[in-house]
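USER:
Make up one protein:

ASSISTANT:
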Amino acid sequence: DVQLQASGGGLVQAGGSLRLSCEASGFTSDDYAIAWFRQAPGKEREEVSCIGSSDGKMYFSDSVKGRFTIPSDNRKNTVDLQMNSLKPEDTAVYYCAAGVGGQCTGGWRFELRYDSWGQGTLVTVSS
């Protein structure tokens, strides 16, 4: 089974940065997509980003585009999420997820696209 471990959350002031890590293990294929989702208090879980292993293409939601990125210096089997210019509305529990298929394509925003989920890491942005 694929196992995911998300880490790196914490408390940061608005305008600051955090780098989350998603360490994955148990893949039986080289073709997979790794996504980040988040769930703010009292809100539904929403998509943040996705990267595909076969093409390396990255996708970001409009709310984080230009502020979040997936660094190219990731360690093997780890997908990081670099979060810059953080805002109080970025406060949420961040989850990483993995799905079969090496491209994110148009379905990356949907939770059903992913088979495995990490436990989540809390990010709190103070104003």
